[in-house]
Amino acid sequence: MATPGEFLVNRTSDDCTALLSQLESVKTLANRIVERMAALGAGVLTDYSWPNEYTQVKFVALYNALDTLPGSVVEDDTRDKLVELSAAIQ
Known about the structure:
By secondary structure, the chain is mainly alpha-helical. It is built from three helices and no strands. The chain has helices at residues 4-40, 56-67, 76-88.
């Protein structure tokens, strides 16, 4: 039977590993959005009719925000801490 400390560390390590995997998936999706916009260009939005007061300015701002995300969606220091625990507890 695991001690409470072992339980805490092992479960947290498992969750960190899962979190890293999900962050990789999120970054892949964000890259896909950015690449699609780069490939098609903002010019294709010229005749688009924006619904519900959403605007091209808001859409481009979203694209720009996604384009500036760090390598793993979280700051590198946070990612490094997740990786360090996952690597240490196996």
